[in-house]
Amino acid sequence: MNGARRRTPIAAALAWLLAFGAAAHAQSIRDANVAAGRIRSDLPAGVGVGDHWLEIAYGQAGAEGCLWDSAASFSACPGRAGWPDRPDGTPVWAGVQQRSVACGGSPTRVGDSWIGCLAYDQNPYVALGNPGDAYWVLVANDEPSFDQCNEGPPGSSHRVAGASAQPRTMFKLDVLSNATAPGRRLRFAIDLGDKDFFCARTNRYEYSIPFLSAHRMRAATTVRSVT
User: Fold this and answer.
1) For residues 183 and 217, what is the distance between their CA atoms, to the nearest angstrom?
2) How does pLDDT run across 58-116, given as a tens digit for each residue?
3) pLDDT band at residue 30 under the 50/70/90 scheme
4) What domain of life does the UniProt record list for this protein's source (predicted)?
5) How wide is the angle at C-alpha 140 spanned by C-alphas 219 and 114, nearest 5°?
6) Smallest Cα–Cα separation from 177: which of 169, 187, 168?
7) For the residues of the chain, what is the DSSP string, one character each?
8) Is the pLDDT of residue 13 over 50?
């Protein structure tokens, strides 16, 4: 195994969204009203680029090691290599989060996955408000997120910036003051006019489903696994 790789398992899109929805009504959240406003990408800067591969842990309850059985989940078991096809003849990785073998990249095997699913062109990391070790986790996915048509790895598919930032980006996030209540608020926007649907790797336009979300603060040492 590559010594430069950090142990940074990643969560699935659905799990992130459910976590955010639950946090919106939680009474024990440590940054109620977004008073501190510390926000950062889930993956640390540099992870998922070059030989600083993602490490995906397949140790959950599903048959293939994801959260659910591949055949029973719309997300399937993304990134999973070396597993027999499903009864219908489709690969266990084929779902909304992955559409191409090896995520459209290098088919060189690394453990239970491929380099194409573990290393991307860049990691468009973003941090606001000096996050430290407790922060709102920002998730910027463009499904399929396990795909080399994206600049970055799952959770950081594309750059996130303010609405007025240049160059413009599809994913927009601003922390705004809240004149009518304590604390601040987060303003999210997805502008498809700022997305290029052409994928240079496939040399054609590709359909995708972008989303941007944040969920409750956590310690930076929390370990996650893929669905």
Assistant:
1) 16
2) 999 999 999 999 999 999 999 999 999 999 999 999 999 999 999 999 999 999 999 99
3) low
4) Bacteria
5) 90
6) 187
7) --TT--------HHHHHHHHHHHTT-SS-TTGGGSS--EEESSPTTTTBTTB-------SSSTTSSSS-GGG-TT--TT--S-PPPTTS--TT-BTTB-SGGGGS---EETTEEHHHH-BS-----EES--TTEEEEEEEEEES-SSTTSSS-TTBSS-EE-TT-SS--SEEEEEEE-TTSSSEEEEEEE-GGG---EETTTTEE---EEEEEEEEEEETT------
8) no
* Tokens (6 digits) for 55: 């490490």
- Domain limits, the chain: 13-219
Residue 156, token pair as written in the block? 């950081």
**pTM recorded for the entire structure:** 0.80
